[in-house]
Specification:
Layout lengths: L1 H17 L4 H11 L2 E2 L4 E2 L4 E3 L4 E3 L4 E2 L4 E3 L9 E3 L4 E2 L4 E3 L1 E3 L8 E3 L2 E3 L4 E2 L4 E2 L4 E2 L4 E2 L4 E2 L7 H8 L1
Parallel strand pairs: 1-4, 2-5, 3-6, 4-7, 5-8, 6-9, 7-12, 8-13, 9-14, 12-15, 13-16, 14-17
Antiparallel strand pairs: 10-11
Length: 161
């Protein structure tokens, strides 16, 4: 527990230094710290990403102000994967980790979150662990996504044509 407390303190210190930096410097930091970071993407101010090495962000993706991407410490293979041409509105929360509420000890649980290409996620949506959002999907503002969302085939046909 002590090690986690020290890690959390250092991580918060790092975010307080990283947040006010100009985009050129913060983007360079994201390129180094994230699992992968595509071209032409943007992460706005006041966004918080826990366990950055477990997050992959595609090209031409925008993560708006105040979003939270929370990975898992306890499950090494759990990732947050965000595809290309994704628009994530302000204050969206993506949770790849949680707790089993059916047990008094609240053991840790986790599942990768995958967001496909050409997806729009509306403001203040919450995407829970283990969810896959298919290509072309639109998540309405304020949604709580608890299960997989299929791809939108008509959009895929439109983009090919």
């Amino acid at each position: 527990m002590l090690l986690f407390s020290i890690y959390a303190w250092l991580e918060n210190l790092g975010w307080s230094v990283l947040d006010p930096l100009p985009p050129l410097v913060s983007n360079l930091s994201f390129r180094i710290l994230l699992g992968s970071y595509g071209k032409g993407r943007m992460i706005d101010y006041h966004t918080y990403i826990r366990y950055m090495s477990k997050v992959q962000i595609g090209s031409r993706t925008t993560i708006n102000r105040g979003c939270r991407l929370l990975g898992s410490y306890h499950y090494k293979n759990v990732k947050i994967i965000i595809g290309d041409h994704v628009a994530i509105a302000p204050e969206v929360c993506i949770l790849a980790a949680g707790h089993d509420h059916t047990k008094r000890s609240l053991p840790n649980t986790a599942g990768s979150v995958a967001i496909g290409n050409d997806v729009w996620v509306g403001a203040r949506s919450i995407i829970l662990q283990g969810v896959t959002i298919g290509d072309g999907a639109v998540i309405a503002a304020g949604s709580v996504v608890t299960r997989d969302i299929p791809p939108i085939p008509l959009l895929q046909e439109f983009q090919r044509g």
